[in-house]
Amino acid sequence: MLLSLLLFESEFLHIVAISFTALVINELIMVALEITTWHLYMVLSELGTAAVYFGSMAVLPAYFGELSSANPYANHCRHALCSHKNVCV
Predict the structure, then answer these.
(1) From CA 31, how far away is CA 49, in angstroms rounded?
(2) Would you say residue 1 lies in a domain?
(3) How far is it between the farthest Cα atoms of the chain?
(4) Lower CB density within 10 Å: C or N end of the chain?
(5) 70 phi/psi in degrees, rounded to 5
């Protein structure tokens, strides 16, 4: 972990955002796997939690970074799709 901090010092915000997103998704899945009898409030709380978290990514880009422009691989894939299909998606 300490070596990753030294290697990716400039990308620390993105590493934290990715790690925390993985943690939230993991916890939502673990809660869903532990429930044996689903009720309406349980479904609403799972969906509400996911909606609030992923909605906060759009509302607070300073804490999560520009997700589309910060990932050069995503831009490369988008360019490859445009040139492959002659249509940008």
Answers:
(1) 12
(2) no
(3) 49
(4) N
(5) -80, -20
